[in-house]
């Protein structure tokens, strides 16, 4: 009940955060027009250089809103990236069965299913890529018969999609072995999610679990596999529980550093804190084709790890990374100042804080903070280290906060 309530909130949020339109697209493969629903991120028009992952939804009639709600709720908290969603509406004339016609023996598309298969790969996706700014990272999702059909795209030497969300799929007899063989054979990184429930259709439930058994025997880093078997759920309610799990599985690398990641993976390192941060965003770019500046809060997490482990030399590398990501801000100079201050080079620290003062503010870092730190450290520098003509005050035995500047 709690998850369903969350989804009602998600769907409400999605109405605010996403542009949603419906249009007809002519298909020479199908010899007809098909209705699609398009969901664009709210600020799509205001970010003309930004590209987005593409999600193709079969059964777009009823899967569009819950997927859009989950994605936009996650994007609001910066846990999930913004995504372009294309829903193919299939219930208008009960088209889903004909669209997903497959061979009983191997699950390969036949009859209209073959034409629908080509419509997606040769017409719909090129149309969307030409009209909208998409990255090469593509996801496909479906439910029962459409979930079984989407596995057809695994049979290509170079699969069209990078991620597959299969919600209670209908799997033909020969598909179980064939899908597992393809997952074991494919070299490119593949995300694969499937789900069932204790109240699911019994025949399909058995086939899904058989596929799960085979998939779990595949041990290769390029396959990111997850299976959910929900309790107290049925063939329809499992959809609402599956969607966030699938999306968070696929976009796990996108999430900012959490408190558990900080405690369990970062602060326990002996060294290489900045390397960890670099690798995190390298994986994001290589696996999801998402290139973005490193989050300010992620910089702060690495700063905290460096301070806790007294690995002050790493501030130098962190400063270089900050300059690359935020060249006009004070972040890089701030990290240099931290290094000098912690290694007791007060003169250089004061100079670096003053240099930061002259740059743009960022996050919680302000000009007042940088100026005050510079002045504080100057007051602690012995007079013999001061430049000729520079006014300094002698160090006296009283708290720093009691010293007053004009």
UniProtKB/TrEMBL annotation:
Pfam families membership: Esterase (PF00756)
Keyword set, alphabetical order: Hydrolase
Keyword Signal included in the entry's annotation: no
GO molecular function, one term: hydrolase activity, acting on ester bonds
TM spans (from-to): none
Disordered: region residues: 382-406
Assigned protein family: Belongs to the esterase D family.
Protein known as: Alpha/beta hydrolase
């Amino acid at each position: 009940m709690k998850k369903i309530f969350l989804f009602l909130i998600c769907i409400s949020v999605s109405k605010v955060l996403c542009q949603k339109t419906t249009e007809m697209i002519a298909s020479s493969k199908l010899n007809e027009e098909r209705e699609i629903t398009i969901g664009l991120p709210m600020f799509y028009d205001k970010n003309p250089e930004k590209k987005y992952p593409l999600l193709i939804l079969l059964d777009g009639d009823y899967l569009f809103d819950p997927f859009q709600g989950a994605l936009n709720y996650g994007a609001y908290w910066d846990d999930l990236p913004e995504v372009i969603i294309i829903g193919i509406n299939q219930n208008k004339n009960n088209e889903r069965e004909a669209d997903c016609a497959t061979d009983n023996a191997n699950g390969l598309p036949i009859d209209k299913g073959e034409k629908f298969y080509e419509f997606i790969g040769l017409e719909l996706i090129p149309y969307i890529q030409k009209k909208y700014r998409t990255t090469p990272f593509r996801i496909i999702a479906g439910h029962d018969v459409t979930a079984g059909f989407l596995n057809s795209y695994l049979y290509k030497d170079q699969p069209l999609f990078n991620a597959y969300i299969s919600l209670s799929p209908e799997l033909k007899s020969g598909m179980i072995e064939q899908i597992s063989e393809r997952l074991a054979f494919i070299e490119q990184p593949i995300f694969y999610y499937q789900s069932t429930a204790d109240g699911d259709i019994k025949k399909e439930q058995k086939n899904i679990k058989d596929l799960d058994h085979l998939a779990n025997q595949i041990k290769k880093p390029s396959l990111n596999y997850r299976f959910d078997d929900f309790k107290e759920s049925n063939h329809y309610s499992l959809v609402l529980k599956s969607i966030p799990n699938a999306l968070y599985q696929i976009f796990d690398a996108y999430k900012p550093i959490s408190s558990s990641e900080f405690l369990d993976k970062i602060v326990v390192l002996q060294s290489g804190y900045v390397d960890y941060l670099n690798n995190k965003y390298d994986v994001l770019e290589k696996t999801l084709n998402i290139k973005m500046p490193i989050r300010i809060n992620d910089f702060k997490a690495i700063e905290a790890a460096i301070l806790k482990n007294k690995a002050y030399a790493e501030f130098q590398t962190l400063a270089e990374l900050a300059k690359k990501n935020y060249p006009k801000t004070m972040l890089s100079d701030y990290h240099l100042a931290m290094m000098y201050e912690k290694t007791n080079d007060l003169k250089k620290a004061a100079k670096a804080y003053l240099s930061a003062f002259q740059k743009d503010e960022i996050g919680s870092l302000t000009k007042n903070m940088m100026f005050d730190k510079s002045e504080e450290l100057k007051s602690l520098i012995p007079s013999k280290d001061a430049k000729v003509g520079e006014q300094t005050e002698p160090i006296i035995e009283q708290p720093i906060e009691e010293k007053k500047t004009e």
